[in-house]
Amino acid sequence: MKVVNERSAIASYDLGMRTRAQLRDTAPQQRVGNARSPEPAPAPRQPGKMAGLSLQLNQQSSSIQAAHRYLTQVTEQLSSFKRDLGRGLSGATKGGPDVETLGRSVKRLNHLLENRSRLSAASVDAQLGLNLDQPLRSRFTIKGLESLQGVQASGSETLLFSAGRHMPGPIAVVLDDDLSDSQILRRFNTSLAQAGLHAEVTAQSQLRFSAAESQWGKLKDQMSIQGEDKLFPRASFSPVQSREENLLGAPLVAPQGTSRAELRQLLDTVDKGLVRVNGVIEQLNQRQGHAREQIGRHESRDEKRWAHDFAARAFARDTGQGRDYLQVAQLVQCQANVSRHRVVGLMG
After folding, report:
1. Distance (Å, rounded) from C-alpha 302 to C-alpha 54?
2. How confident is the model at residue 82 (pLDDT cuts 50, 70, 90)?
3. How far is CA 216 from the centre of its chain?
4. What's the CA gap between 290 and 285, in Å, rounded?
5. Nearest to 166 by CA among 194, 137, 145, 200
């Protein structure tokens, strides 16, 4: 038995007749409208601004995710190391702490900390803090220049800094007698700025230097200093002995014996690291939620504006584009009459 879908045929006929009638009705209005001055067109969208903002938010979200993954790995390693230390301190292991197990834990943790910049996509600094907006910097002290008072007491001396091809020749830092703290810092910073180094004073009156991690990675094994037999010897350049600052004092040293004091000190270091990392992870969760909210809000707003503009162009019946409206309406009607079973049958 053949069933004729009269409703579809009538709907298509009615749609075509209504559309043509509407075109006839609107034709005089269009001619009259053309005589009047045209209305100002709506302001065009600025997709570049929205796209740039969306890209920035997505990049920030990616950095947060990389930092979260890395810090989660650090937390797991610290927790595992803490359990091993706890067993050693409680004497649960026969014959005292298992030195080999502790050594393997320290090795894995040091490997994770050494590859921090790569594994975290340069979003976590040496203090295991979040750093999303600027390049990571290494902070370190130089043996012989640790104390600001020591530099002042040495008096007049010219220090030559060299790092081979990584510096534009030896750089001279001229120190004089009776310099104040700010004057000493100015002498170092004025000269060493061309090498990307910066000097500062800590709360403990310690002289500390910093550089971008990528730059310090090139300099630290090549830098040497020559003085005038006060802070550094005059005879030749002395290789710099530096100590980088980080949260755990890495690289950690595996315990070699069964000293409870040594194990207790390591346990305190691990506890300090866990408190710090858990706090940063909580901060990351908050920032990630905020970033996702911003991305969703801006993408939703942009999509709505795009849909509104598209609909205005497709169905602009009052601007002489009735034929386009008819074509779109017929296309929608045809698509609505295609059943799911017919699509599946054609695909099969």
Report:
1. 10
2. very high
3. 20
4. 9
5. 194
H-helix segments, the chain: 6-35, 47-90, 99-114, 116-119, 148-154, 181-192, 213-219, 260-314, 322-336, 340-347
23 Cβ partners below 8 Å, 6+ apart? 322, 326
**Whether the Cβ atoms of residue 300 and residue 10 lie closer than 8 Å to each other:** no
Percent of residues, the chain, with pLDDT higher than 90:
40
For the chain, what is the mean pLDDT?
Answer: 78
Least confident segment among 47-56, 85-94, 233-242: 47-56
What span, in angstroms and rounded, lies between the C-alpha atoms of 173 and 167?
Answer: 14
Cα 316 to Cα 252: distance, rounded to the nearest angstrom: 71
CA–centroid distance for 160 within its chain: 37
- Extract the tokens encoding 316: 């602009």
d(CA 112, CA 115): 5
Residues ≥6 apart with Cβ < 8 Å to 126: 116, 136, 138, 139, 244, 245, 246, 247
Tokens 């990049």, residue located: 59
**SS3 category, 151:** helix
Nearest to 57 by CA among 288, 284, 281: 288
pTM over 0.90: no
* Complete DSSP assignment for 182-195: HHHHHHHHHHHGGG
Q: Do the Cβ atoms of 288 and 133 come closer than 8 Å? A: no
